[in-house]
Design brief:
By secondary structure, the protein is α/β, with parallel strands linked by helices. The protein is built from 13 helices and 15 strands. Strands 3-2-1-4-5-6-14-15 form an 8-stranded mixed sheet, sandwiched between helices. Strands 9-8-7-10-11-13-12 form a 7-stranded mixed sheet, sandwiched between helices. The radius of gyration is 21 Å and the shape is globular.
Length: about 375
Amino acid sequence: MKIGVAKEIKTDEYRVALTPAGARELVQGGHEVTVETGAGIGSAFADAAYEAAGARIAGVDDVWADSDLLLKVKEPIELEYGRLREGLVLFTYLHIAADEPLTRALVDSGIAAVAYETVETSKGALPLLAPMSEIAGRLAAQAGAYFLEKPLGGRGLLLGGVPGVAPGRVVIIGGGMVGYNAAVIAIGLGANVMILERSLDRMRHLEEILSGRVSLVMSSSLQIEESLRDADVVIGAVLIPGAVAPKLITREMVRGMKDGAVLADVAIDQGGCAETSRPTTHSEPVYTVEGVTHYCVANMPGAVPITSTKALTNATLPYVEAIAVHGLAEAVARDPGLARGVNVLDGKITYEAVADAHGLDYQPLEDVLPGVAV
């Protein structure tokens, strides 16, 4: 199969969808790999490294036009909509439940759009979202500590405190992969950490793996409101796979927070879990609403592209190989988890949460591809 690797052009995005090591594996498997000129530079991978792995370096037009399978990191932006076409399989993070224009562009183009973030195992795990969730959670805690500093508009509080001075309070809403990793770093910084979670089973697991070093509390609207009042850093770590994030933090709750507190909304890719959240970039990462610093960078792992690119390739390569060897139709027939990643196919939305988010028609994948079990 002809596999293309596009260069990311979204603002402040430095990741690339495939490492040279990944390219070599695909080439050795008999596939043709074409990497866009300069695609790996932001992740410290020169064009020569891909060529040494057996890949071909080409311009943007060739990569998009000649590929059967196109690998990206982030969703196509408007400048790329014209390159979407029937017969192309796009494999990337899409987050289209929060992006109606892109959803419509994918539908109109006839492309097969497979989203990393909705590939799901039989046990409900999200194997391709997990590595970026780990990184984003850890970055969120770092960002919270950083933007508490007074010169950056924060309260002027050292999150970990010092002997004789109490540490800051971190409230994490959601105890999944993001929330757990945010807690690990916040604990390491010496903060007082609380996780709000809805699943008792998950809380029991967190109690065990975090050795009782956090407070675990059942999440509710009232509990969120009360917890936010005392928080110095709030981390939104809420996820409904493939769907718009629920708005659990109201403007009124934000108004009740301390002046100079920090809200890091990791759910911003899916629309954010706070009413006051809007996407920001690494160049301009924060803004202030109701006296609270909002950190809502939509591609947080892009800040550490060397780590992120390697972690992403580690996770995605087996799925890329499956599509390359078998073609998309047979690959999803063989793997129901990969089938859950198909969001758009043949002009139809095949992921229900996306259709619901935009009030558009939904068609189950098994109706579009008979014989597929999702």
